[in-house]
Amino acid sequence: MRIYLDFNASTPVAPEVTAAMQTVLDAPFGNPSSDHWAGRPAREAVEKARAQVAGLLGCEAGEVVFTSGGSEANNHALKGVFFAKSAAQPHIITTQVEHPAVINPCRFLERLGAKVSYLPVDAFGRVAPEDVRRAVTPGTVLISVMHANNEVGTIQPIAEISRIARERGILFHTDAAQSVGKIPAKVGELGVDLLSVAGHKLYGPKGVGALYVRAGIQLEPLIHGAGHEAGRRAGTENVLLDVGLGAACELAQSWVGRRSIPDLRDLFWRRLTEEFDGNVVLNGHPTDRLPNTLNVSFPGKVGTEILGGLDGVAASTGSACHSGSVELSPVLKAMRVPPETGMGAIRFSLGRTTTQEEIEAVVKRLKAILG
Fold first, then answer.
1. Would you say residue 7 lies in a domain?
2. Alpha carbon distance 279, 275 (integer Å)
3. How far apart (Å, rounded) are the C-alpha atoms in residues 96 and 330?
């Protein structure tokens, strides 16, 4: 039996999303920017999708910018603020556990003169709001902290950090690629100015995402050209993928808060502690984490070797093997997970189709491998 427990890496396209995309494969075929009979239906399809994304985020439709995915949304937020500000040396605050789609643009902006503070996190992977407050300088133009970590699932104190940002008049961005569709991510409750979404993380198609931009915020476009997306992103709208993302966001509203997935995750953890008493460690926050994410370590073991023995099970590790040595992920390093523990890390991320039978089967296979 093949078992998929890597939903944080990518989700399958939901049947409802496929059905919505099918309606626009043949028609409307016109350019959404064309004001004639062939273009207007395409424009209507895009704007319906925009409203569906806005419905999940709790914002106005006009505050949603379609992108090619979460990476572009993050790049647009970071680079858009940097190039829109006139500070001599713009200062950006982020954390050491961000996704590479935030860390690497920050590294790039440092080469262009930006000053970036990469804040540490605690053993659970959380950044302290007071550390953010202390990092603020007169030149700070942006704070970027992810909503939930993709590896260990830890949820950051976004609302607390947003209050600090508002007090100092600083823009606040959150990468919500892993959280949207799993936990509430209403922009008003979070208090953010910019928020990134990735379609393939919430049962939509790959190659599409969105960036929430609070009304009144001016960003330099990442892609220059004609005035698409209200002048914020040039390029003819991808009607098919936009419709897919919209349908995925509408469907996700009925899944946020459901107990089925977190109940299975908790069952999985209980079964692991029963079978490997004292020989399995939880990575990440015990309660403030994504409802589908279980990152565990088997101390003294190597995650890649364990996964190699779990024939047919799709999951991820928190380490990488290079020339016979094991290198921990930057996230586990930042959490100060001991190497002998971190090298045995595996991330199991559950999804809407995960069953108890699959969980029991994985526990049984782990028992056979580890004894």
1. no
2. 9
3. 8
Phi, psi of 205 (to 5 degrees): -75, 160
Contact 336, 313 (CB under 8 A): no
How sure is the predictor about 319, in pLDDT bands with cuts at 50, 70 and 90?
low
pTM: 0.96
Q: Are residues 264 and 166 in the same domain?
A: no
Which residues carry out catalysis? 321
- Across 327-337, b (16+ Cβ under 10 Å) vs e yields ebbebbebbeb
Domain of 117? Answer: 15-252
What domain count does the chain have? Answer: 2
What was the pLDDT predicted at 326? 65
Rounded Cα gap, residues 297 and 317, in angstroms: 9
CATH number of the domain encompassing residue 340:
3.90.1150.10
> From the CB of residue 72, how many other CB atoms can be counted at a distance below 10 Å?
23
Q: Residue 264 is which amino acid?
A: L
- Taking only the tens place, the pLDDT of each residue in 224-245 is 999 899 989 999 999 999 999 9
Tell me: pLDDT of 117 over 90.
yes
Domain limit, last residue, from 192, 225, 252? 252
Question: Do residues 341 and 318 make contact, with C-beta atoms less than 8 angstroms apart?
Answer: no
The reply to whether 230 and 363 lie within a common domain is: no
Q: Which two tokens stand for residue 238?
A: 């991808």
Tell whether the model's pLDDT for residue 318 goes beyond 80. Answer: no
Q: Judge if 239 and 315 occupy the same domain.
A: no
Helices (H) and strands (E) in the chain, counts: 14, 15
The beta strand positions in 288-344, using DSSP E, are 293-297, 313-314, 316-317, 319-322, 325-328
pLDDT exceeds 50 at position 360: yes
Is residue 118 domain-shared with residue 242, that is, in the same domain? yes
The residue whose two tokens read 């419905």 is 55
276 and 364, same domain (yes or no): yes
Alpha-carbon distance values, 249 to 199, 209, 224, 236, 365 (Å):
9, 11, 27, 22, 35
